[in-house]
Design goal:
- This protein is of the alpha+beta class and about 400 residues long.
- The chain has four domains: about 80 residues, no CATH class; about 80 residues, conserved putative lor/sdh protein from methanococcus maripaludis s2 fold (Beta Barrel), CATH 2.40.420.20; about 90 residues, Efflux pump adaptor protein, beta barrel domain (Elongation Factor Tu (Ef-tu), domain 3), CATH 2.40.30.170; about 110 residues, RNA polymerase II/Efflux pump adaptor protein, barrel-sandwich hybrid domain (OB fold (Dihydrolipoamide Acetyltransferase, E2P)).
- The strands form five sheets. A six-stranded antiparallel barrel has the order 3-10-13-12-11-14. It has a four-stranded antiparallel sheet with strand order 2-15-20-19, with no helix packed on it. Strands 7-6-4-9 form a four-stranded antiparallel sheet, with no helix packed on it.
- β11 and β12 form a beta hairpin.
- The longest helix is centred in the middle third of the chain and has 26 residues.
- The radius of gyration is 47 Å and the shape is rod-shaped.
Length: about 400
């Protein structure tokens, strides 16, 4: 077959296909115009299709004419370009953002001390055991103190001698006033020496500086220790301090005294209450977080220093409209949604605040209960008429018979 015949048949088939498309699809003419086809050609195709349909209707039976008229009435009766766009909609809800803070923190005792001796020497006696609860001032261990006892006794003898000498000089008139004064000064020096000897002797006893629970004892009897040797750790765990890091957006919202809840993997299902004890004065530039310290009550002594805690706090938060992610569209000016009002589509600008898996929080003029389109958005236009999928059609008024 010659090439020109093939081209002629192809063009004829293309025109026939366009005519069938225009006849079957009500919005085909508008789509052709949007694709750049001149309106004249579209009108010619529509008129030729209409004439063909008219001829077919005239040659058909009366029943076929009735069916054709019924179909035309169901399609709107007028031009196919005036058909309403079918869309699916969803109402706007309200959601709260920045209303809850969750973080992981580490706990430490409210008072924790590493007990060290105040003098050097040999451990002579250990008076506590690991896990024992002690009070402030209780003796934990003793160092050897024979030398300090002797020095104390010598200071006591020197004081007694100086006291008697000073009293004798004061009672006798044969001594000058200067001799009496020297005797009094000697007595006072002897008192200071005795006080120093008593202090050195007391320092041979290692005492608890706070109330708390004894940890594992790091020394044994006979060990030589110095004033830098750690004897034992002592924790006051009536309360625990939990340090955690909060995101920068909570830096102003978190304040001292605010309530906080914490839970530990060691106590599943149990929650502990407390308050914010301190907030750092600066934000970490590397992580963009701020350090926060909470104080958690431990009345039953079930928590230990070093535990990890899941910390939770609640805030008033900020309320924003929430829409389905499918509703958000974009153009050259930014994001928007199609708001449906009185079966008309209205382009409403939005600013995205937060994206979630099931909703998008936006800043806009939308209110709770407003309806936005989520499907069928490709053909929606500003101010265009739409039909909502699943909506009940308006009931027709009953016909009144006329005489």
């Amino acid at each position: 077959m010659p090439l020109w015949k093939q081209l002629t048949i192809s063009v004829a088939l293309l025109l026939l296909g366009l005519c069938v498309w225009v006849y079957v699809s009500p919005g085909a003419g508008r789509s052709l115009v949007q694709m750049g086809v001149p309106q004249g050609i579209v009108a010619m195709i529509s008129s030729s299709e209409g004439e063909g349909a008219t001829g077919a209707g005239q040659s058909a039976s009366g029943q076929g004419q009735g069916q054709g008229q019924g179909q035309g009435q169901r399609r709107g009766g007028g031009g196919r370009g005036d058909q309403n766009i079918l869309v699916a909609t969803q109402p706007v809800a309200m959601a709260v953002v920045n209303d809850r803070l969750n973080a992981i923190g580490d706990g430490e005792a409210v008072d924790a001390v590493s007990v060290m001796p105040q003098a050097s020497g040999t451990i002579a006696e250990i008076l506590v055991t690991s896990g024992q609860r002690v009070q402030k001032g209780d003796i934990i261990a003793r160092l050897d103190s024979e030398e300090q006892v002797i020095l104390r006794d010598q200071a006591a003898v020197a004081l007694r001698s100086a006291t008697e000498k000073a009293e004798s000089y004061g009672n006798l008139k044969s001594f000058s006033r200067l001799d009496v004064l020297d005797a009094q000064i000697a007595r006072e020096q002897a008192e200071l020496q005795l006080t120093t000897a008593d202090l050195n002797l007391r320092r041979r006893q290692i005492t608890a500086p706070i109330d708390g629970v004894i940890g594992i004892i790091a020394v044994s009897v006979g060990d030589n220790v110095t004033n830098s040797s750690a004897i034992v750790s002592l924790d006051n765990r009536a309360q625990l301090l939990v340090d955690f890091w909060a995101p920068e957006r909570f830096a102003v919202a978190v304040k001292s005294g605010m309530p906080v809840e914490a839970s530990s993997v060691a106590r599943p299902g149990q929650r502990f209450t407390g308050v914010i004890d301190a907030v750092d004065n600066r934000v970490d530039q590397a992580s963009r977080t701020i350090r926060v310290r909470a104080k958690i009550d431990n009345p039953e002594d079930v928590l230990r220093a070093g535990m990890s805690f899941a910390v939770a706090m609640t805030f008033p938060g900020d309320t924003y409209p929430a829409v389905n992610p499918l509703a958000v569209q974009w153009d050259g000016q930014g994001s928007f949604v199609w708001q449906i009002t009185n079966n008309k589509s209205v382009k409403t600008r939005v600013r995205i605040i937060q994206r979630n898996s099931d909703q998008v929080l936006v800043d806009s003029a939308l209110k709770e209960g407003d309806v936005v389109a989520i499907e069928g958005l490709q053909r929606v236009r500003e101010g265009g008429a739409v039909d909502v999928a699943g909506a009940q059609p308006a009931a027709k008024a009953p016909e009144v018979a006329t005489q």
